[in-house]
Fold these 2 entries.
Entry 1:
Amino acid sequence: MMKLNLLETALLLGGIAFLAGCYGLLYGVGRLAQRQSIMLAGFACYAFLCMLVAVIVSTTPLAGPWKAIVVVFALGFLGIPPVTWRFLERTHPHRRRS
Amino acid sequence: MYRSQQLALKYLAAAIVIFGAMVVAGLMSAYYYINPDFLFGLLHFNISKILHIDTLVIWLLLGFIGAVYWYFPEEFGIELVGIKAAEVLFYVLCAAIAVVTLVFVFIQYGPSDGVGMWLVNQGRKYVEAPRWAAIGIVVVMLVFAYNIIGTAIRARKITGITGVLIVDLVPLILLYLDAFPAAKNMSVDLFWWWWLVHMWVEATWEVLIGCIMAWALMDLLGTSRRIVEAWLYIEVALVLGTGILGLGHHYFWIGTPQYWLAIGGFFSALEPLPLLGMVIHAIYDAGTHHMKTTNRPAFYWMLAEAFGNFIGAGVWGFMMTLPQVNLYSHGTQWTVSHGHFAFWGAYACGVISVCYLVLQKVRGSAFLDGITWRWAFAGLNVGLVGMVGALLISGFAQAFIERAQGGSTLEAFIAGQENFWFLDGMYARFAFGLVFAAGYAVLAYDLLTIGRRVPVHAAAVAE
């Protein structure tokens, strides 16, 4: 089973990390440009990431604990951009834009 | 300019020269895959691969040492302690690198005894340099540590960055001692050998480049020390937290206990989380500066570092690090793809960025820009991305056909090597390798001439 799903599982995992990067990039650019549409595009990437997580949980032969870890990491990816941004604004008060 | 900064220039110049040697050896290694008869009987694939990987380690190490020698005296406002020893050792190190290279190219093999180990090849992957040269590397690192710690003691001062650097020197040197044992048991040997390879690359080097980037950020963007040091502590905690036990993701097929696979998979899967934070920081810095800086090449190479690190180490790593995938992908061209991308993003881009920062000071350019560096940036990055894409496709074919379907038999190995996806990937890798080499040539030309060729635009600083 794992043999047949090897590439599919790997690509889904890579896709999750890649979409997390896209979400972070668009979130950051949206905050900088103060453009809601760019931030929405970022959240759309995150929504797509959640879909990939659902596919991993439902179709891949990863063991249960690893599926749980993927879900937890996906939640972590959601929090990192806003938390980092808030920290940056707090530590760079002279550069704050909004 | 301090004497240690003059020495830093020599180290950085040597790093860029050896970077070129790495590119040549890499091209040769890539060509062997599409023409296995290449230089048959003269120079075999294993030698070019040794040269490619060892020069990678050496050029980055020289780049790190050069960057530290450049920034360290500015940190304390005094000359480095023991600068004379450091100057002498630079020439000794360069001579040793040249001798070892000549031995690898012309002698190649030695007897399987002490003579071979001491004079030809130590026989351990990535640290193949004969034992006399390996001892030389330890001496250089000890003098480097003496320079750093001695200067901090003489200055009677310690900063957050230098504190982290000094603490990092201890495992940096101690772990290299792991290059020496010659355990008879292969599993025991590989178990400890990975401590050296993994802990250097995914722990001590990460901290070292973190310190260098902290100085570079203060230099390039005028970021306050308080901020970069706060980030450095966070980065060190996260990188070490995820990196050290990530060691287990190497422990496949070498006879280590099975629990290491889960530990390694879990902790290395955590690695994209701090890297995503670094991407956010890069966007914040770039945006609040409106992409404006007095040193464009350094700025863009620093951005490339943040994004390359995330994609190469984060995305590529996450794709293959869970044990169920790693079981099959381990040691295939898939791993090679990840290795190329991660080294490029995590280290190479940072060293190139520092080179431009240093050159701006040395050549007195108030504003550093031009067309040439953009061609180098494009050539190197397009070449690198093309190579890792091609290697990924070959690696997919190898992992699927040879490992997952074929069960790693000799027959499956041949089937994997002959598969058209694998072969096409190898051809594409070589083609993009040529693009990368062209990018390197332009980079070398630009580093030699930038600031001399481009007029100084003092007015542009106000931009």
Note: The CA atoms of residues 15 and 49 of chain A lie 7 Å apart.
Entry 2:
Amino acid sequence: MTDNIENTSPSDAQEKIGVYVCHCGTNIAGVVDVVQVANWAAQSLKHRGVVIAREYKFMCSSPGQDLIEKDIKELGLNRVIVAACSPHLHEKTFRTACANAGLNPYLCEMVSIREQVSWVHTDKVAATEKAKAAISGGVERVRHHVPLQPIIVPINPATLIVGGGIAGIQSALEIADAGFHVYLVEREPSIGGHMAQFDKTFPTLDCSACILTPKMNSVGTHPNITLLTWSEVEKVDGYVGNFSVTVRKKARKVDEELCTGCGICQEKCPKKVIDNVFEAGLGYRKAIYTPSPQSVPNRPVIDVPNCTYYEKGTCKACDIFCAPKAIRFDQEDQILTLNVGNIILATGYELFDARRIPNYGYGRLPNVFTSLEIERLTNAAGPTNGNVVMRDGKTTPKTVGIIHCVGSRDKNYNNYCSVICCMQSLKFAHLVHERTGAQVYNFYIDIRAAFKDYDEFYQRVLDEGTMFVRGKVAEVTDVPRNENERGKLIIQVEDTLVGKQRRIPVDMVILSAGLEPRKDSKEVAKTFGISCSVNGWFIEKHPKLDPIATMTEGIFIAGCAQGPKDIPASVAQGAAAAARVLGRIEQKEMALEPVRASVIEEKCSGCRICNGLCPFNAITFHEDRMVTEINPALCQGCGTCVAACPAGAITGTGFSNDQIMAQIEGLLMMNIEPEAVTA
Amino acid sequence: MSDYILYPGCSMEASARAYYDSLKAISKPLGLNLREIEDWNCCGATEYLSVSKTPAYALIARNLALASNQANETHSVVAPCSACYLNLAKADYYMREQPKLGKTVNEALAAGNLHYVPGSLDIRHLLDVIVYDIGLDSVEKKVVQPLTGLRVVPYLGCMVPRPDYDHHWSDHEFPVELDFLLKVLGADVVDYPLKTECCGGHMPQISPSTAFEMLRRLISTADERDGDVMVTICPMCQLNIDGYQGEMNQFFGTNYHMPILFFTQLMGLAFGIEPKELGFGLELVSARNVLDTLGVKAPPETPPAPPRRPRKPEGLPMPTPLTKPQIEALKKEVVK
Amino acid sequence: MTEAPLISSTPVFTPPQTEDPTLLKEVASRTAGISNLEMCIQCGTCGGSCPSAADMDHTPRRLFALLRAGMREEALKSNTPWICVSCYHCVVRCPQNIHIPDVMYTLKDMAVQAKLVQDSTAPDFSQTFVDMVEEYGRSFEMGLASRHYMKHFPLRLANMMPMGMGMLARKRMNLAPTRIKNMKQLKAILKRAKELEAKQ
């Protein structure tokens, strides 16, 4: 239903403002009396330039937009207020509508009466009054708006991908295959990520290495990919289309050009080191090593802290046996600068440290293993050649308990579901049973086997005779209460389907540990100017409609860095991120929001308070002139510096002090009775 | 001197006398200055909480209010008994967490002209104070008679490391504070995975078979791991393991002899204090073996219990003759 | 529960319980602190952790399910709260931070008020303890022990004798109660507290 409430009497303002109040179905209209609000706006804001006010069921729909366009054309509106949802959702919609009607899109202002009013209040009278106040503020603000033009920037066709796990590999290959250059930066000596450590992948049980290594090799040999392993991003300057990235290429102590990857150095190196990364602490490597025989690039690195030469000045076994003489003990870190247009972050996850749950005994009871350890134990290329044995290295377990949700779905550790653990645990149940014939117990809260062929795999594992006990395990102990339990690990749990506490003696316990963000995810986010959730996962632009972009233009995310996910989902997201980047590259240039902060140099005292605050690294300080400058292409218009500046020297385009003050004044023009607001 | 307000709790004056005696004996060398809360009352243990909420919290909060009246330069209240410690900490925490409870409890306290501001006191357990305030280094300096060769089983029970509202302890289930302290005293500390398992609490009075099974797990594991003596920080744990060990042995047909002492008693021994001053000999399962291992002269044996006489079930065992103060106390009762 | 025994002289009929949707809320609101009771995900960590679960008719988890189902009578008849030893293992392990022992205290109080307690041993013990504290301001073990054991465990007295004698001989049990000085104040506080509790 649309009321035409047109003002015929002349207003004392020069602006001709249209106010459009959206019902949003019942989202807004269920709490706010939108008809009353529209009537009020038409009558009471007349003297402030409002020439028309309308309400409509869905303003964002085509007919809704048409209303606005029609009024702009017919009534000559020069300002538009849309009181609806958050500008995050539909600002672009309404600005486009205005532009279609010939109005500068930045003369349109959205007032959020859904997120900030109807969704957070129950008192209809007070909410209606609050909506009026919000609109009053918007009207005052929009009167101070000026037409703005978007900033056009060119797009550098090269792309940086950070992280060489399966998500990063997928992104790199997609972009490189399309004919554009990719820099792939990986922290470890080889790409491959966690997937390279696995033996089998659920639910099809195909060999992880068999499906991954061809992709790794493609990356290694692709003419469009510059692979930088054993390297880390230190600094990101610039902005979408024109990033300048500083990368530290750590000294391998090996000349990658000369080295042939023959492996004799690893064979001859006398220093054995426990491999806490690739072998998850279960196996050994040498002080000069590649993580695995399938490493890409197949070039070793010297682990300086563990190398005898660096400790004692002698040894050089690797150097002596190296035929092409590729060992470079004096090699130093290199600092590279890469110029790229877009960045994809695919930095992956870390395994939850199971020692944090002492009642599960990891690190205290020898035969308690983590999921990653079991991946290595079951892997034919692993420390036991795929034999599933206990910590003594020889005994085959007869009974094995697999505990789900270790460190996940638990407010004491991580309150989220790690997504992959159910299927991973089912995979272990199958593999352990297949390799050892052991009786396997799975202890679960809920079996989450939600995707294609997953539940069928659950059926298969049930069919193989795996015992399922529904209950979160309370503790794993080696203290027996009777002779049956002596010498065993006892899993104490409530079997919730029976309603009784059970103590199940087993030989081996597998903790299906959850996934956690990288320890340094917060610093990485800061380096790239994006944000992390409370848990530490990178935040996507929109949880449903844009899980690939971030709030920072030109920075995309893929894989577990965004949240726990399995291999198919990581691959899909990696490919999606590549598609988004390719779309950008093809456009060759892009328009940026002109909402930017700028410094009024005369007012800047050079105090530098704003310098460290910018989340987008857009602020530079000119020592010579003692003033701060803001790079307009880098600035995202967040306003942090504007608020922080003690001299009031920073102003935001689209968020000028005049506009903000006017909005506050507009809000305060509404005298909401305190009684009406409470409750 | 480190100043603390002391909330001893009822058991320190009765079943856990050895704890109080030894605490007093080690206070001086440790430089602990403990000022008892004037006219403190029982914390209600777990019993009052089971009967009625508001009165239970008011009962606990009276102690907090009295203590805060006494607080001047120190706001730390130290409780050696774990149930007392937990109740004080719990009342303080819940009154903070749930302001409505705080308000109701203070309304009740107002009937006695008292008031307590939640969060204004720091509630600490004695072990926490010794390990973290006084410090293991200072303790080590006082050791003159290291407990060399003594296999000590550290046993904390439940209510001190859990739920640990204000994060004083290294872990809820495997805290290391007591182990470290005993190591500093020179003892051979047994790895005891049941160190924070429950002793059964009031179960000997409610469901004896439940209690005996819980005691059996604790005592048999301590015995299997070759412990000479268990060491606790809790009067209830001491009472159950010491007092009910005999009955438990009868119940299961076992023959365990596992003495249990308070950690303050071993600290006193290591500091060279006379066993008698430390309440040695008050335990029912004799800890004579501890003194023998260390070559310390044992105090004279407690006089043997009077011979058993058949009696009607109306009376408990015949008491020993009353002492003078006890008689006076009884007289006062009659007068009132 | 509604099935009649096969051989019975009198037919037994238990009418189906009416479900009380307010039960869960009532228990949560009567519990001190923020209990998080409504957050239970039925994972069984509590029942798995409980050292005395073997003697409970329902594990804590199932008891919470009964509360959620509004089965007031069955929940309040349960012996679970009385078997709980307040060891707090469940509390620190509970993934939802539910204050389980405090919920148990509430259930005990409610069971006594609803006269649904099946075994009076534990409530009697608590009440006797409380009586002593309300009388003297201190606990009085001798009085408590004699009153309680006499009533509930007369047969254990013979086995208990060595302990009782030992405790007395070592003066670890006082023959006479200690009374705090300002009993008047404590009584006034408790009186007001009871009035406030009754109002809630």
Note: Residues 144 and 271 of chain B are 5 Å apart (CA to CA).
